Amino acid sequence: MTTEQHSISVLGCGNIGLSIAHGLVNSGLYKSNQIILTKRNTESLEKSMGSKGFQVTADNNLAVKKSKVVIVCVTPAQLDSLLESIRSVINPKYHVVISVVSGASIDDISVKLGSSGVAIVRAMPNTAIQYCQSMTCLAVRGTHHVAGRAEIEERKDQALAISEKIFNVLGNCIVLKEEQIVPATALCACGIAFFFRAIRAASQGGIEIGFHAEDAIKIAAQTAKGAATLVLEGGYHPEYEIDKVTTPMGCTIAGLNQMEHNGFSSAMIKGIVTSAEKAASLYSKKQPAPSTTTHHHHAPQAHQQDSASTTTTSTTSTANNNTESKSNNKRRTRNQNKSTRNQQQQQTTESNNTQQEKPDSNNNDQSHEQQQEQAPEQHQPSTASSENNEQQPQQPQQQQQSHQNNNSRRGKSNNSRRSNTKKEQEDPNNPWKKQENNHQHPAPVYDVNSVDEALAKARSRNTHQQNGRGNRRGGSGDGGGGRRHNGNNSRGGGGEGGRRQPHQHQHQQQEAN
Ligand SMILES: NC(=O)c1ccc[n+]([C@@H]2O[C@H](COP(=O)([O-])OP(=O)(O)OC[C@H]3O[C@@H](n4cnc5c(N)ncnc54)[C@H](OP(=O)(O)O)[C@@H]3O)[C@@H](O)[C@H]2O)c1
């Protein structure tokens, strides 16, 4: 792919837009001067990105005219006015529109662009795209897509191919049906925050057992990276890797079970389901948010250390690198570890819930009308569906699988099974191979209600068992997930080695549950 051919613009350079812009350059796919970035208020963007050679403008029309690939990165509440403002310059036969906007369907976007002929790709990346480590889910058609004219279908395929090339360089990408983009928002885009929280919780446990904050974060983050690498590169199920570090009566299984008793897996599953439900309604509701200022640029180091209050602001760490001294970070971290985390967490949650719903102050009806009048003839009358409601999230396979894993160590996702089968068959030491063959799991049917019920039962059981401690379960509520650690039992987590035979796994799982 030549970058000349696919000149690119990012419309709406906030958190994810900036991360994408950085990723495009860090990947070597584009030079900064080949990328056009837009924002209504460009002052900060000029300073942070203009100085690095990016083309910065508040003029979306200009950006679209100069690009083939247009990546739309505004919030759901800002989307309509942006699309209406560019519809007159979008050429369905030329442009590829990639939308990362949560909840807005391809039909929604087509309607606003005034043409069903525009090749629109939905993409759901996460902020690790900055370092070319994003998981990005792509969709160009839904399950019930009715094929249009051949040339339109061809355009869609080309748009998807271009998107795959870009997002594969910016990490890893998979193509899904459009209905799965909402669940993907929860698992992939929100998901990175869940793992940040897990890293933070681990580091807080680490501090409690004797590590300085910065060492604890480093150890926790690298350990998380190692775990992800083992799953991705090794191709094994996480539980298989867990079995390798859990010695009978050892400290790892003691720590793991303690976490499960406190609802670790349940909290993660519930959080993902809740995020997916929320994501489904983001565009259709388009709630205005309180007029709080969103801060986009924070020094990466500050984010790492700013554990309890990090998420009260937006979290892109792209523009200002390392502007705070290490000693300041250390001091802040110590203070935060002492502060009242419950309160901060609550603020965090509220802030996160509203950040993507900023009111769109620049919505200008008059200019919209003018642009509509100027729309070129090539725009065909819209044949796209006018339904603005995002379809409800399809039953997410991954979530179901997570739940299964909680109950059975033999569980393995269809996806992971698909990708791992070859590897596992090649490995005679893999004790799961036989079980996998014996247990043909039917395609999981996800049922939120039954998960809810199961979770409610488990929660009530745990609450009784723990004598009222259930409310603090999950590690995210009070920011002190590591506090109940028994120092002797929770330390380590690795290094015990030794594989157990399958029958021992079942034993262990009974204990875990
Ligand atoms: N953040 C993530 O990790 C992530 C991941 C995947 C998907 N997403 C989705 O991506 C979208 C953006 O999220 P975000 O977190 O990046 O939001 P954000 O930080 O608020 O960024 C939105 C940006 O759009 C700009 N903008 C608004 N209207 C504009 C217009 N008419 N023309 C040009 N720029 C305009 C805003 O700046 P001005 O006000 O100065 O114009 C702002 O910088 C959301 O739909 C979100 O769901 C986010």
From TrEMBL:
Enzyme class: oxidoreductase
Protein name: pyrroline-5-carboxylate reductase
Residues covered by region (Disordered): 281-513
Organism domain of life: Eukaryota
Entry's EC annotation: 1.5.1.2
Pathway: Amino-acid biosynthesis; L-proline biosynthesis; L-proline from L-glutamate 5-semialdehyde: step 1/1
GO BP annotation list: L-proline biosynthetic process
Family: Belongs to the pyrroline-5-carboxylate reductase family.
Subunit note: Homodecamer; composed of 5 homodimers.
Domain Pyrroline-5-carboxylate reductase catalytic N-terminal, residue spans: 8-102
Residue ranges occupied by any Pyrroline-5-carboxylate reductase dimerisation domain in the UniProt entry: 178-281
HAMAP family named among the record's database cross-references: P5C_reductase
Biased composition regions of type Low complexity, renumbered to the chain: 301-326, 336-365, 372-418
Keywords, alphabetical: Amino-acid biosynthesis, NADP, Oxidoreductase, Proline biosynthesis
Organism: Heterostelium pallidum (strain ATCC 26659 / Pp 5 / PN500)
GO MF assignments: pyrroline-5-carboxylate reductase activity
Phylogenetic placement of the source organism: Eukaryota, Amoebozoa, Evosea, Eumycetozoa, Dictyostelia
Catalytic activity as recorded in UniProt: L-proline + NADP(+) = (S)-1-pyrroline-5-carboxylate + NADPH + 2 H(+); L-proline + NAD(+) = (S)-1-pyrroline-5-carboxylate + NADH + 2 H(+)
Pfam families reported in the protein's UniProt record: F420_oxidored, P5CR_dimer
